[in-house]
Design goal:
Blueprint: E1 5-6, E2 14-15, H1 18-42, H2 47-74, H3 77-89
Antiparallel strand pairs: 1-2
């Protein structure tokens, strides 16, 4: 059984591991921070809006990191064998493996005091 972890839905790119995600995020942040600096210089009165968008950007980046961690863990051979182990000890007959899509919605966590 293989697992596919994707970002941006079923048509999004497949994520292989967290290192791949972090490299991609680094490039995204370098490009984005340049835009943020220009925008703040040109429109300083709209700092509050910019701050909200920066927070939203980082929330999306965190979702990508979570996808990378999940992809890396599910790629390990032991993880793929886990369903086989559990099927031997199951009390009820389990269905044969089939491709299933799992949509994970990450919720915002605010730790501000």
């Amino acid at each position: 059984m293989t697992y596919e972890v994707r970002v941006d839905g079923q048509s999004g790119p497949i994520v292989k591991d967290v290192d791949q995600v972090l490299r991609n995020l680094q490039q995204q942040l370098q490009d984005q921070q340049k835009q943020w600096v220009v925008e703040l210089r040109e429109h300083p009165a709209q700092f509050a809006d910019l701050e909200a968008r920066i927070h939203q950007t980082f929330q999306g980046l965190a979702d990508q990191v979570v996808a990378g961690v999940l992809a890396q863990v599910t790629a390990v051979a032991d993880f793929a064998r886990m369903p086989k182990k559990s099927s031997r000890t199951a009390h009820h007959k389990l269905r044969s493996p089939e491709k299933r899509f799992l949509k994970v919605r990450l919720l915002e966590v605010c730790c501000c005091g």
